[in-house]
Design goal:
heterodimer, A: alpha/beta, Rossmann fold, 2 domains, 5-stranded parallel beta sheet, 5 strands, about 50% helix, globular, B: mainly beta, 3-stranded antiparallel beta sheet, 3 strands
Chain lengths: ~210, ~50
């Protein structure tokens, strides 16, 4: 996979520090309202029951460019959840939907949690969403069930695509991000060995893809 | 004579639809848009 840095358009040639079993939270930073805070608290609890850690832009301090930090986090996680409500500032809302778009472009799972009055832009009408209401916990439970099942699907497809080593490795990488299963990394090492790709430069596209 | 294709299908839990895969070519060849599996295409078992 070739990833282009949003700051200069050059391909990213360093290994990504993947964060399996995490969820990147997108919401308004600074001065969130009580309802957003309540959603966040509830989400943290629900995710932790499935062994998933909630992280956000404040979870990592790099001292470098803020956009690059966010972009690195987006590449590192398997899942991104956006909390939106009608009281949010328009600039915060734009950032959230930009980040959702980046996540979807890189094959990450996404979910929008919206309050009753919040509106979703038309480009995101197919993005899964749940309402923050009395059925929130149940809806999140169903979403997580499908999310976790996606890892088995990716692993299964990876096995069926053995004749296409890079695509197979990419499916295994996505399965690993969701499940955190070390056995998937072993499978990648085996594919690399059999495909005779192991002699490539460390920063070649193939080796960067398999570096997790 | 052309080599026999090894085509199977698997259900994507996200979409709920079946995806057809040509194993010999290592390619995803079709995404079903309606409910149910493709006719006359074996469903791949879960690999472990």
């Amino acid at each position: 996979m070739i990833s282009y840095r949003p700051t200069d358009g050059d391909p990213h040639t360093k290994p990504i520090q993947y964060r399996p079993k995490t969820c990147f939270l997108m919401t308004q930073i600074g001065g969130p309202d009580d309802e957003t805070l309540a959603i966040r608290r509830s989400l943290t609890k629900i995710l932790s029951k499935s062994g998933i850690e909630l992280i956000d832009a404040g979870s990592v301090v790099t001292g470098k460019d803020f956009l690059l930090k966010i972009w690195n986090l987006l590449l590192a996680v398997p899942l991104g959840v956006a909390i939106i409500n009608e009281k949010m500032r328009p600039d915060a809302m734009c950032n959230i939907f930009y980040e959702l778009g980046v996540l979807q472009a890189y094959g990450k799972e996404t979910l929008v949690i919206k309050t009753e009055g919040a509106k979703i832009p038309s480009d995101f009408v197919r993005t899964e969403y749940v309402k923050y209401d009395k059925d929130f916990k149940g809806a999140m439970g169903k979403f997580l069930e499908h999310f976790l099942a996606q890892a088995d699907y990716y692993e299964n497809v990876a096995g069926l695509l053995e004749q296409n080593p890079l695509l197979s490795i990419d499916y295994l990488r996505r399965a690993y991000l969701i499940s955190g299963k070390d056995a998937l990394r072993t499978k990648v090492r085996n594919i690399l060995a059999n495909a005779e790709l192991s002699g490539r430069a460390r920063d070649s596209v193939e080796m960067l893809l398999a570096d997790f | 004579m052309a080599a026999k294709k090894d085509v199977v299908q698997v259900k994507n839990p996200k979409s709920g639809h079946y995806v057809k895969i040509d194993r010999s070519a290592g390619k995803i060849i079709a995404h079903k848009t309606s409910a149910g599996p493709y006719k006359d295409v074996p469903i791949a078992r879960q690999s472990k």
